[in-house]
Amino acid sequence: MSNDTVISVQNITKHFHLYKRPQDRLKQALLGPLGKRYGHPFQALHDVTFKVHQGESVGIIGRNGAGKSTLLQLIVGTLHPTSGNVEVRGRVAALLELGAGFKPEFTGRENVHMTAKLMGLSRKETEARFEEMAEFADIGEFMEQPVKTYSSGMLVRLGFAVQTSVDPDILIIDEALSVGDIFFQQKCLRRMSKLREKGVTLLFVSHDMGIVRDLCEKAVYLRRGRMIICGTSHEAIRLFLQETTATTSSGAHQKPARGSVSSCDFIGQFEESAIWMTNSERNCEDMKAKILAVSVLNSHDAPTMKAQIGDVWKVRVLYQIYIEQPIHITIVIKNRFDQVVYCGGTYTLGMELPRLKCRDHAVFEMEITNMIEAGRYTFSIKLGYSLDEANKGIVVDETPWLGPLAVEWDYERKKAPFMGMFGIPCTGRFLSL
């Protein structure tokens, strides 16, 4: 392994045995040496090879069952490969399964000390960092309660607080942040960004392509246990979205009704530019409408997540409806302090909505002029229908928080069009005396 390589995965293959009934596992253990077979082999990973260099941020992407979690467990050492070799150099902090490593009967405080000790910290060092961990976890009096009483969100809060506070060389996270609320997720992402700036190596599994695109310069795309690509995050995400789209379109909507247009035709237009595409495994039978894809473009229709103050973003939303009722589209934008800086769309613009039939598709485009101060913003798209009361409605589908949208300005060299958080339309004149 070279000097700057901290993770080396060489020709990793991992097999499991699957059993139809729990008792078959016992029978296999007892009678297996006699040639009896009660289960069947399952290949979770096959011949996976890649390297991670010091300070790199690498995303692991793929559909459910692709082998992402198995790969992380092999790297951490909680699983051993059937064949191949894994080498890891440095202190590893890992947040894999909820509550993994915590003793259910121990309090949060006791688990903090136990985990920190296993990570190599002395009791004195742990005490010095305990208040910071407790503040970040923000679980209040539950810190003194057994973790068996914790909710899944509280387990993630405590686990993340501990694992990111022990000065890791390598931080490994497996989709655990999807459990917490959006405020805690953004809090975690800020901490991960700071660790990244300090040179910590990051290995991150997520189904949110926006986060992977922002947080990771490289990505490994797994499909059915095989590595399809290890390259730039943009290349890996684009390939993943294309293949996911192809798989989705070959399913239930393969034969659209006469005269309609299939989702494949529409989604194909979004493949190159999409910041987010629907998870094909979402059950839409009971939904009133579904968002299929979202893209962000500049005024020249080129995909971008960056803009200068005053530039225009075009946010395009592809959606499908399952009821013959007008559906509104809304975009919500938040700043780094989790404050809503804008919420609007077809309702606030007073737009007349298209009359669509069940299973029809539509594309909505909103042009947003960036008259907000330079910074990073997240956004979410929502579908819903309005109620009789003013400004009241019901949300029927929404994307996760996407981004970041980066508004840029060189305040040192260029005159700003406004100062403060927003550019409010105004005029000025001198009156004669």
Task: List the SSEs and their pairings.
Layout: E1 5-18, H1 22-31, E2 40-53, E3 57-61, H2 68-76, E4 83-88, E5 92-95, H3 108-118, H4 123-137, H5 152-163, E6 170-174, H6 182-197, E7 201-205, H7 209-215, E8 218-223, E9 226-232, H8 233-249, H9 263-268, E10 274-277, E11 289-297, E12 306-308, E13 312-321, E14 328-334, E15 340-345, E16 361-369, E17 375-386, E18 393-398, E19 402-408
Parallel strand pairs: 3-7, 3-8, 5-6, 6-7, 12-19
Antiparallel strand pairs: 1-2, 1-4, 8-9, 10-11, 11-13, 13-16, 14-15, 14-17, 17-18, 17-19
Characterise this structure.
The chain folds into two domains: 5-236, Rossmann fold, CATH 3.40.50.300; 262-408, abc- transporter (atp binding component) like domain (Coagulation Factor XIII, Chain A, domain 1, Distorted Sandwich), CATH 2.70.50. The strands form four sheets. It has a six-stranded mixed β-sheet with strand order 5-6-7-3-8-9, with helices on both faces. Strands 12, 14, 15, 17, 18 and 19 form a six-stranded mixed β-sheet that branches. The protein has a four-stranded antiparallel β-sheet with strand order 10-11-13-16. Helix 3 (108-118) packs parallel to helix 5 and helix 4 crosses helix 5 (152-163). The termini are far apart. The chain has helices at 22-31, 68-76, 108-118, 123-137, 152-163, 182-197, 209-215, 233-249, 263-268, and strands at 5-18, 40-53, 57-61, 83-88, 92-95, 170-174, 201-205, 218-223, 226-232, 274-277, 289-297, 306-308, 312-321, 328-334, 340-345, 361-369, 375-386, 393-398, 402-408. It is an alpha/beta fold.
